[in-house]
Amino acid sequence: MNDKDALIQPDRGQDAITIRLADKDGFDDFLKSLSAGQRSAIAGQKFDGDGNTHAIVPNGDGWFAAGGVADRQSLSSWCLARLAETLPAGTYRLEGTEPGAAMFGWIVAQYRFDRYRSKDDEPGPRILLTTDAKGIAAVTAEAEATMLVRDLVNTPAEDMGPERLEGEAEVLARAFKADLRVTKGDMLEREFPMVHMVGRAAARSHAPRMIELEWGDPKNPRLAIVGKGVCFDSGGLDIKGASGMLLMKKDMGGAAHALALARLVMESALPVRLHLLVPAVENAVSGNSFRPGDVLKSRKGISVEIGNTDAEGRLILADALARAGEDDPDFTIDFATLTGAARVALGPDLPAMFARTDETASALLSAGEAADDPCWRLPLHDAYREWLKSDIADMGNAHANSFAGSTVAALFLDKFVAEGADWAHFDTFAWRPAAKPGRPKGGEALGLRAAWRMLQARYG
């Protein structure tokens, strides 16, 4: 968006409607600063300073907005989001404080996915002013990356197949003068055999492919970002039930995160040599679907017996991680909507994070807390590796018991990451099942800002 249309703009003294913040602890003092008529207006709207509430307060010939926040002295990313969703269109200024981290929530709260809706009249933008003009670009970049994830995940599979993910990578390559390589057809079968096998049952228009983008000075540390791009997951021959398939357009959520993170890296000119890898497939059902009991060869040379065709995401990620490791990256990070077990353990809000080193895990956890994008570390517990043993192949893709599903999936991936390499894995939901302020129901970036802040601290 251009400066004129930006939802956060520099405060140059322009006319603006005032927002006065209040919290529970200071609510009595807030009331004392008001006139009797204003207090009556507050009472009539049942405003008590609670977070995510507001009131419209008359003020002479005009009005101001009273906004409730959890802590007026420490604004979070989401504390102004409800105001950004509900206030009338206009330009606003906080009284006596700067929005800081809340600028992010102000922007993404005004996100709408309306591609398939008749164009109803939408309220105009709510613009927030800040004296921190230098901070606008950074927060806008994070917000736009988040909204990119939402857009990609919300788009139905018919319009978000492997070729569309390739198109998104092409947009990035053109914008940032990056090199793009797409492997498909016979070459895909030779170079990335598990990506080919998982995706070969799909219609030709949704044919599988490996998408690779490289950018940056080769002399800089090499950063590999990998994203699972299963554009729709029927479960294959181990087919899902109807309810299980309903949200499977979001199974490319890992790819959406990877594309958005790569955009942040390039947009900020982070001093790295970026290698983005997106294995893009549709796990469909047809006469040439891969089968339970099949043994697949992998790029790394490890043979994999298929115990469950619905554990396909780890197969395509394995080939991508093997490819990433061939160039000896300084750090590899992947995103995937990989297991229901992670959601059972942590619910929809917290992505499960796995890392080989405590230092990397601590950096991601700290970055997530600072960015209001928390994640939770789960273990790469060596004792569970035996659950991936196979009687006829080097390993299986699924274990027979119902224990520790997200850990076992991560241990499968670990087998394909270069030995001794620094690697982190996000098992993210990429979806919000119920709306919260600034976070509508639907596709969501979970773990994106945590990873981005960690990368900035590491390389910036």
TrEMBL record:
<keyword id="KW-0378">Hydrolase</keyword>
<comment type="similarity">
    <text>Belongs to the peptidase M17 family.</text>
</comment>
<dbReference type="InterPro" id="IPR043472">
    <property type="entry name" value="Macro_dom-like"/>
</dbReference>
<dbReference type="Pfam" id="PF21337">
    <property type="entry name" value="Peptidase_M17_N_1"/>
</dbReference>
<keyword id="KW-0645">Protease</keyword>
<protein>
    <submittedName>
        <fullName>Leucyl aminopeptidase</fullName>
        <ecNumber>3.4.11.1</ecNumber>
    </submittedName>
</protein>
<feature type="domain" description="Cytosol aminopeptidase">
    <location>
        <begin position="308"/>
        <end position="315"/>
    </location>
</feature>
<dbReference type="InterPro" id="IPR011356">
    <property type="entry name" value="Leucine_aapep/pepB"/>
</dbReference>
<dbReference type="GO" id="GO:0030145">
    <property type="term" value="F:manganese ion binding"/>
</dbReference>
<keyword id="KW-0031">Aminopeptidase</keyword>
<dbReference type="GO" id="GO:0006508">
    <property type="term" value="P:proteolysis"/>
</dbReference>
<dbReference type="GO" id="GO:0070006">
    <property type="term" value="F:metalloaminopeptidase activity"/>
</dbReference>
<dbReference type="Pfam" id="PF00883">
    <property type="entry name" value="Peptidase_M17"/>
</dbReference>
<dbReference type="InterPro" id="IPR000819">
    <property type="entry name" value="Peptidase_M17_C"/>
</dbReference>
<keyword id="KW-0464">Manganese</keyword>
<dbReference type="InterPro" id="IPR048816">
    <property type="entry name" value="Peptidase_M17_N_1"/>
</dbReference>
<dbReference type="GO" id="GO:0005737">
    <property type="term" value="C:cytoplasm"/>
</dbReference>
